[in-house]
Amino acid sequence: MSAAQHDAARGAEPGGDRGTRRLPVVLLHALPLDSSMWDGVSGGLRARGHHVLTPDQRGFGAAPPTERSPSLDLVADDLARELDRQGIEAVALVGCSMGGYLAMAFLRRHPHRVRALALLAARSTADTVETAAQRRRFADLVLDDSTRGPIVAGTAPALLGATTRARQPGLLARVTELAGSARPQSVAWAQRAVAARPDSTATLRATEVPAVVVIGVEDELVALDEARRTAAALPRGRLVTLPGVGHLAPLEAPQAMLEVLTGLLAHTEAAEATAC
User: Is the pTM of this model over 0.85?
Assistant: First the structure.
């Protein structure tokens, strides 16, 4: 199955009605996971009448890897082509971590196609020189057979909050397994693409759509102050904090995420109905 076919299949699961007037939703996954991280949220959105796409990004899940130079712009254009293929003009765009950085790349390249935006565990700024170097170092380590296992085992727990690690050991095991089973070349490619991303603050400041920035209070990778700055850059943005949640809110608190997204979508649709 090609990446486009896989994306279409996941987007057309039961509950997705292409004839509905509800705003289509795109859910973009985190690194080093795949689209299955949204399973606890996507069904609820489809039950509310939204057509939902949960694409696997290049090299993850069912999507084939790429030989192109690392760039989130390539993946953003993949999404634009898939929307074209499905006849979808505009969407509510939701991204978690790497998915958030991809959402900002898509917003920068295809701003007219975004009618609502949700950024989870993602900062608007580019990496510092030190952080970018750390990402590239991680990419090198994950490609090395002798260091891949220890580096994955050592970093996977930080994807979840302390409360989740204590109360949901099964989820920690699942995330660690998913991280360990991801293609090393794809993980390295994605790390380098994220490290190379530009500052998106100006893009967010020019974005006049309803938006929400979501941060887990126990996120060990993105600070609360960074999330506040991201939300402040959005003219119609607001910040939502989730207690007891770390970096992966769709997995750690799927019901809370469903409520946040349902609220954003309802607000967007109500505003558009009033404007009409």
Answer: yes
